[in-house]
Amino acid sequence: MNPSPANQPTFPLPTRSLLTASILGPLGTGVLWLLIGGVGYSLEAGLTGLWSALIVTAVGLAADLLIQPWKPRAAVAWMNLWILHSLVRIAGTICLVILLYFATSPDPATLLFSYLLCFLVGLTWETVVWTGPLRKAVLPAVREQEAE
């Protein structure tokens, strides 16, 4: 039997960790892209990476604030919000990167790879933040069911 959502404990997500992941992951990647690409290739390539990082950071923060991670919710609700959060991040960043492309016409390969790198670093770090509290909340119930 699956436990009903009413029986599940409620908990907030670690808001500070989530916001830190949304800011430092993509921005750190963008700054590294700027330093490596700007010095090793061209300033335009470096700045394209920084713009990609700023877009991923801004949309990530907006998605974080949209889901209100400081509010306690059941694990089932957090899993649904995780899907919404991911969809907002993907759609929002793609729309803004396309807008950046048509507004400034940077090198397409540089824009694509800098965006993907910034997005994947942010996604990886945020996944670690999201899964921590979910595992802590769900694993005891799963172990209890297995023991029965």
Strand tally is 2
Radius of gyration: 18 Å
- Low-pLDDT windows of residues: none
Classify the helix fraction into a percent range.
Answer: over 70%
As laid out across the biggest beta sheet, the strand order is: 1-2
How would you describe the shape?
A: elongated
Based on secondary structure, the structural category is mainly alpha
Count of spatially separate domains: 1
Biggest beta sheet summary: 2 strands, antiparallel
% residues in beta strands: under 5%
State the separation between the terminal residues, measured CA to CA. Answer: 10 Å
Question: Could you tell me the mean pLDDT?
Answer: 89
Which descriptors apply to this entry?
mainly alpha, two-stranded antiparallel ribbon
Question: What this model shows, in words?
Answer:
With 148 residues, the protein is an all-alpha fold. Helix 1 packs antiparallel against helix 4, helix 2 (43-67) runs parallel beside helix 4 and helix 3 (75-104) runs antiparallel to helix 4 (108-147). The chain is elongated, with a radius of gyration of 18 Å. The mean pLDDT is 89. The chain has one domain. The protein has helices spanning 15-40, 43-67, 75-104, 108-147; strands at residues 10-11, 73-74. The protein has 4 helices and 2 strands.
